[in-house]
Every structure is written in structure tokens, then in C-alpha cells.
Specification:
Blueprint: H1 2-26, E1 29-31, H2 33-43, H3 45-65, E2 71-84, E3 94-109, E4 115-127, E5 134-149, H4 156-159, H5 161-225, H6 234-265, H7 269-274, E6 278-280, H8 293-303, H9 305-326, E7 331-352, E8 357-362, H10 366-374, E9 380-388, H11 394-461, H12 467-502, H13 505-508, H14 513-519
Helix pairs in contact: 2-5, 3-5, 5-6, 5-9, 5-12, 8-11, 9-11, 11-12
Length: 520
Amino acid sequence: MMRRRMTLLTLLIMLVASSARAQDKEAALTLTLGDAVTRTLQNNYGVAIQVLNPELAALSLSKAKEKFLPTLGFGFGKEHRLSASYSWLEASESTTTNINDYDAQVSQLIPTGGTLTASITGSKNFTTSKFQTVNPRFGNTLRFDFRQPLLRDFGFKMTKRDIIISQNSLEISENDLEATLANTVYSVEEVYWNLAYSLQNLKVRQQSLQLARDLLAKNQRAVEVGTLAPIDILSAQAEVASREADILSAEAEVKNNEDRLRTIINLPEAEVKLALPIKPVDSPRFEAKEISLDEALLTAMQNRPELKSIKVELRNQDLNLSYAKNQLLPRLDLAAAYWSPGISGDRIIYADPLRGEITEVIPGGASGAIQDALAFKYKNWSVSLTLDVPLSSVFSKAQYAQAKLNLEQAMLRLKNQEQIIFLEIRNAVRAVQTNYKRVQSYRAARELAEKKLQAEEEKLRVGLTTNFVVLTYQRDLSNAQISELRAIVDYTLSLANLEKAMGTTLKNRNIRVDQIMRSE
């Protein structure tokens, strides 16, 4: 009784283990095409690298804009002088002088290229020398300076050149990111549909193998009852062996495509370790789509990110040419200043100036000097023009010539890119049209192969044909099914490639570059 219970328990454990192995075998990572694209854009290293470029360009733009931030400056100095007296009138033995000074200023660059500066300076001077009428002496000056270039470096474009170029570089980096995303999405589609094809190809091969095995089993029974010669079974055995080899190749193709999809999606390490087979949920569909070459070309010219980047670069080179031309001009600067000094201190009244007898000291603090300066009690101004004409501008001329060549080169790149896009669109439209016709032709061929096989199997049943002919028709049907499936996948991929060529890949899938950047 105990032995029977142990046997039942062992059988139960084996049954549970067998069921668990079956579940593990059936476990798979199911993915829709949309899931594969989303996970790739979130995890792919190539996308992650490219996403950083717009961020770097945005930081460069912020740095370029800093030139319009005001510049603050502060200074403080203290000086002590001790010198021998050269005259008994000045001092008996030595003269001591203490000087304290300070300054503060703010400077602002304005969009026309000029600079506006506001400053205030102050000082305190105390000396032991005799016959001073004000000692200690306080001085303050409030000053406004304006300098504006009138020829070289004049104007908004010249002043904001670095900012404009940084803005254009940011736009170029975003266009490059868009191109990377579009290429990545197409790569995902290509691998996804090739995996779907390889799985269907494996399924067709398995069905073909099963047909060959069924025919082999039928022939073996016929040999056993004596209605078929043993030599007639050899063709069926050879075909089974050949189709088993086809199965091995088809399985390897499935594994290769699974690895490609895992790599491009960059699955998490935990999922990679499980090594689950990937099962595409979506199937390629054959739907007719009208394609106009002119409309496709117009769409591409409006949407291709590569073309947008070259046009932006063309603006950069045009700006560089304007800057180089501006640098050939002489420098003519307008300078204007307006300032207000203030002076204060202790006033010393002498009874006899020759003897240095002091009768009264009228106090005067530092605040008096500051008040006079701020009240513009003493108004001063100046205006000047300075002209600087370099005798040699070889470097500037070389820079100008280089800028002209760079602009011409950018224009040639634009025309070359337009030609490339035109060729890509023509090839993509032709591929869609060709693959559409291929699907129709292979579908007709597959339907005929099915009818031929059915008819030949009926003839074999009544003894009017041979096993070899039936096996040949089976293989023809398998090849026709695979060719039709390949044509459908190629047609689907050609539509995706046309979208990429027109620059509408992201738009058709509601993928926005700014969303990708924020998600990173």
C-alpha cells in the first residue's frame, strides 16, 4: 500500500513538472508593432545618444544669450605713502598720505552692438602735509559712458550672430534627431515584419513536412499490404529528409530575427536572461494604396529632416558671409560720456597761511561728495568719433572668400540632397507598385498550386499518378505560399520605406520629437 502511494506521488510530481515545462515552452514575449516601436524609442542606445545633442545645443544657446546679461564690477584700493620732507614749509621731517578709493560699475551690451556703462567712483585722501585747504578730501563721480560702432560690428545681425547660429544649431540637432527616430522606426518595422515572415515561413515548412510524412506513412502502409513496390517509397523518404533540413534553416532564421529585434529594442537584462521567444501579434496586411509620384515628392521636400537641416545650415553660411563682409569695413565708433563729480571734506581756515596757523576747521563728510554727484551739481559731457582704417586686411579678405565658398558649398549640398530625395522617392514609389503586382501574381500562383495539388492527390488516390509528382506539387505549393508571404512583407516594408522617404514616418505614428526628449 505504501509503495503504491509513493508511485502515485512520483507520477503526480512528474505530471506537474511536465506541465510546468510545457508552460515554459509555450511562454513567449508577445509584441505588437506599436509596442516594439515604443520600447525601442525608450531603450535604444542610438536614440539615447542622439537625444543628448539637442540638449547640448540648447545649453550652447543659453550660453550665447549670456552676452546680453549685464556685467558688474567692483573695486577697492588702499594706499599708504610715507616720504621725506624736502621743505620745512611742507613738514618738519616726513609726509604721510593715506588714500582710499573704490568704484562700482555695470555694463550692458545692447542689440545694436553698442555698450552702455554706468559707474560711480569715490576716494578719500588724507595727508600730513601743511597748508592743505581741504583735508581729508572726499571725491565721488557718477559717470555714464556709451560707445557704439557705426560700421564694423554694427547692427542686430552682427551682435546676435552667435545666438542666431546657436538657435540654428539647435534646430539642426532636432532635425537630426527626427531623422534618427524615423530610421529607427523603420529598422524596427523591418526586423518585426521579417520576424513575422520567418515565423510564417517556419509554419509553412512544418506543414509541408507533415504532408510529406503523411504521404510517407501512407506509402509504407501500401508497401506492407503489397500494393506498392518498396522502391517507390524512396522518393517520399528523401523528400521528408529534405524538408526536415528546410525546417532547420527556417528555425535558425527565426532565432536570428528574434536576436535582431531584442538588440534593437534593447530589452531589459531580466527579459534577455529569460530568452523567451518573441511572437509578433500583428500580421502584414495587403491593402491597395494609391501613390502619386508628384505628391510624394512634394511631401518629401516639405518634411524631410535632412533637407531642413541643410536649409538651416544655408542660413548659417549666409549669416557668416554677412559677418565676414562686415569685418572688411573700417572701425568707426561713436563715444559719448556724461559725468557728475562731487567733492567734499574738512575745510581748513588759516589765520596766517605763511605760518600755517589754523583758526577754524569746517567739517565736511563723504556724504556731501556723494550728494553733489547724484544731484548732477557739476555737469560734464563729451562726444567723440574714432576711425580705425587698417592698412592690411588680408586676413579679413581671406575670411570673406572662405565664407563665400562655404555658402556655395552649402547651396550645392542642398541641390545634391534634393536629387538624392528625388531618386529615393522614385525608387520607393516604384517598389510599392512593383511589390503590389508581385503580391497579386504570387497569390494567383499559390491558388493555382493549391488546385493542382488537390487534383494530383485525387489522381494518386485512383492510381493515375505517382508519389514523385505529388511530392513535387507539395513543394511547389509550399514555395508559392512562402513567395506570396514574402511579397506581402516586401509590400508592407516598401510602404514603410516610402513613408521614411517622404519624411512622414513620425507624423503618421503620432511620434513627436519633443515628447521623446522629455521622456529621456
